[in-house]
Each structure stands twice: as structure tokens, then as C-alpha cells.
Amino acid sequence: MSLPDCIKKVTSPVRSLITLVIMAVAVAGCTVQPLYSGGSTGEIGAGVTPDMRSKLASVSIEPANDIFQQAVRNRLIFLLGGGAGEPQYPAYKLRMGLNKTTVSAVTVDVGDKTDRTGRPSAGSVRAFSDYVLLDNQGKPVARGKRTVFASFDRPRQEFANLRAERDAQKRAAEELAEQIFLSLAQDLSKL
């Protein structure tokens, strides 16, 4: 039996239903678009509507206390303002509590007859943020928590080990800022 004979055996109502379902899926796929998509450039926030962009650009961020917080703050300022910096007259203020910890993920016996048995060979940076978005009157309009992890290898050389940990902290700060940005965009879309 050939393929056309199989199709002919399907009754007309069933064939019509299958055609209708395929067309509905095709039409639905054409109209659905992620709200905060990166557009064709793949950048975070590139496909945001102008109204949402103006809301995001009206958020100011409280000053940072350490290098990690400053890295998150700088990335957020860039994402929120589209590279234009902080707003002169902000409509919202973002207050963040940031924390990071570094843990050893794996320990191995290096087997080189030294007392360095159980030396960590991999690490992980955990970055955590607890944020509150305040309006002009200081009333909270949104709250959220975000956590990210960034893994890294721990080589035997001390400088390479420190550099790998610092790079992981930088990756964690940037990823945390991007997650907070997307969360703020979601929160502001509800206002």
C-alpha cells in the first residue's frame, strides 16, 4: 500500500480536523513572541518595547559596598539604561542585598607524595541577591530573590587558582545582574 492510499483511507472529517490543528499551530507559532527576547541580535533586552525600555531606564540603583556588588551594579546600570547610565530623575529605586560564597566542589588525591592530599580541584561561586524595587514615595512595588552558580577549575599554580576564582566571580556577577534585569522587567510589566 502506498502513502497516498493510506491518506485516502482517512475519512474526510478526520483529515479536516488534522488540517485545522496543523494550521492552528502554525498561526499560533507566528503570533507568540517572548516578552523580553533578545531580538535578532541575541542581546538581553534588545527586543523590549519602547514603553518598557523607558520604565527600565527610570530605575536607579543604590551604591555598592564592595567590588562584587559594584560589578553587579555596573552591569545592571548598563542593562537598565541601555548604556546611557543612571537616570537623572528616577521613578524607581532598586535596593539590593548581595552575597557571594566560594566553595570547593571536588577534592582529589594528587598522588605526589606531599601532604597536599585532598586538595580541591574544582570550585563553585554562589552569588545570591535579595532585592526590593521602591517607587518615588519609598513604597515597595516588587521583591525578588535570585541565585546563580559559576564553577571553575583549581589548578596547582596559586596565581592561576586565584585568577580562575576571580573570573568565576565576575561571571556570577554578570549572570546575577542579567537575571535581576529580567526579573525587574517582568515586575515592571505588571505595574
Description:
The protein is an alpha+beta fold and 191 residues long. 43% of the residues lie in helices and 26% in strands. It contains 5 helices and 4 strands, in the order H-H-H-E-H-E-E-E-H. Strands 1-2-3-4 form a 4-stranded mixed β-sheet. This is LPS-assembly lipoprotein. Keywords: Lipoprotein, Membrane, Transmembrane, Transmembrane helix. The chain crosses the membrane at residues 17-36.
* Number of structurally distinct domains: 1
Give the N-terminus to C-terminus distance in angstroms: 61 Å
How many DSSP E strands? 4
Strand order of the largest sheet: 1-2-3-4
Give the number of helices.
Answer: 5
Second-tier CATH architecture: 2-Layer Sandwich
Shape: flat
Low-pLDDT parts are none
Q: What gyration radius follows from the Cα positions, in whole Å?
A: 25 Å
- Give the name of the CATH superfamily: Lipoprotein like domain
Strand content: 25-35%
CATH topology: Double Stranded RNA Binding Domain
Q: What string gives the helices and strands in order?
A: HHHEHEEEH
Percent helix range: 40-55%
Name the CATH class: Alpha Beta
User: How is the main sheet built?
Assistant: 4 strands, mixed
The computed structural class is alpha+beta
Oligomer: single chain
Mean pLDDT: 81
